[in-house]
Design a protein that fits this description.
It contains 13 helices and 13 strands. The protein is an alpha/beta fold.
């Protein structure tokens, strides 16, 4: 029997008023706002999507922020639409399901989908809010981060009775500011932060140094889970410029694998022994190989340069600190004894084009309904309750 699910990875399509309602008057003009304009073109350049304005008759909702322009695209806001009907075209709010952006409608869709609670990653600011770290005016960027978090906690999650779980973002250009924001939102009841799986890919310092220590210390002290959605390094693995995007879609898990190994060998789990990580939409079948390989290199690669050797094998840190969620992974379920049933959470990926809405119950039954009831309960909800300290 599959109990009501707690989804550890869904998304919100931010409503048009998020920043304009919360921004000081002097910043309103350059702060994010929606402008209805013709659909634009999209191209993938060196693993990064670029958008250019169009001139046709079909309209899209475009976010304007400083001199940056991004349209809302159908493929990120199309719950339940068959894959063959999904496109990368720009859309307006009238074209998408209200559950994408309205919390009351979202709760109704969750009821249809056998979901009790949901953790939602950003959409427009990208999966860890990295858009605001690219602001020309970082004072404005910080205000945008704070406005998003206040909207997330007070409006998106506020009246949901704990069913919508707050997930904040932080200023990625300053670890002290990031720590300050973690403490601020923790006082408002937020215990999860969306962060980059590979911050160096964003032009920020990596983990192998002390730059991020104030942020990590704040997360540990507030019991805030560091949640890293696949693709939150902005770039993706691209085999060649002419390779189709489906190649990138298959290789994007490499981001999560690289991130997990980076964290384990960084020594941060020794320095901050109560840190918890969550990898979202990464699936789980890849984990046993990389942990086995890491244990082997830890034992045998004594000659490795540039390394301060961690005192325990990587598998020790993985079991204690790392969690991952999935929704399409029969291989992972077959390897669950090696991945660890206490380290796995389920997700629906609503409202993305490859999500499980409205068939989540049937898909969960097919994937892991044959397991022991205690294991089913852990995957469906109990691991999420324990990780995020939920009282639902």
């Amino acid at each position: 029997m599959i109990p009501k699910i707690i989804s550890a990875d869904d998304h919100v399509i931010e409503p048009a008023h998020v920043w304009q309602d919360r921004m000081p008057s002097k910043h309103k003009e350059l702060a994010p706002k929606i402008v209805i304009a013709p659909q634009g073109e999209m191209t993938l350049n060196d693993g990064v999507w670029l958008e250019t304005p169009g001139t046709g008759d079909k309209m899209a909702a475009w976010w304007h922020f400083e001199n940056k322009r991004y349209q809302i695209k159908q493929m990120v806001a199309c719950p339940g639409i068959p894959p063959e009907e999904v496109t990368m075209e720009g859309v307006t709010y009238d074209d998408i399901a209200p559950g994408c952006y309205d919390p009351i409608a979202r709760l109704a869709d969750m009821d249809i989908n056998h979901v009790e609670a949901s953790l939602c990653f950003p959409n427009y600011p990208r999966f860890c809010g990295q858009l605001f770290s690219e602001a020309d005016d970082l004072e404005l960027g910080l205000l945008c981060v704070q406005a998003y978090n206040d909207w997330m906690i007070d409006e998106w999650c506020g009246s949901s009775g704990g069913r919508l779980i707050p997930l904040c973002i932080v200023p990625l250009w300053d670890a002290e500011l990031a720590a300050k924001e973690i403490y601020r939102v923790a006082e408002k009841g937020c215990r999860a932060v969306a962060w980059s799986e590979l911050p160096a890919w964003l032009g920020r310092p990596g983990l192998h140094g002390d730059f991020w220590d104030p942020f990590l210390k704040a997360c540990e002290e507030t019991q805030t889970v560091i949640c890293m959605h696949i693709g939150s390094g902005t770039k993706t693995v691209q085999t060649s410029p002419e390779a189709p995007t489906v190649v990138t879609a298959n290789l994007i898990v490499c981001n999560s694998a690289a991130s997990m190994i980076d964290w384990i060998f960084s020594g941060k789990f020794e320095q901050f022994p109560n840190l918890k990580l969550l990898y979202a939409e990464s699936q789980i079948g890849w984990i046993p190989y990389f942990i086995e390989r890491a244990d082997d290199t830890w034992r045998t690669h004594q000659w490795a340069q540039g390394e301060k050797r961690i005192p325990k094998p990587p598998s020790h840190y993985y079991k204690k600190h790392v969690y991952s969620c999935f929704f399409k992974d029969t291989v992972g379920i077959d390897l669950l004894d090696r991945i660890g049933e206490d380290n796995v959470l389920f997700e629906t990926d609503y409202p993305h084009q490859d999500g499980t809405f409205p068939n989540t119950l049937a898909i969960a039954e097919e994937l892991f309904g044959h397991l022991e009831q205690e294991t089913i309960d852990k995957i469906a909800r109990n691991n999420a309750i324990k990780l995020f300290g939920l009282t639902i």
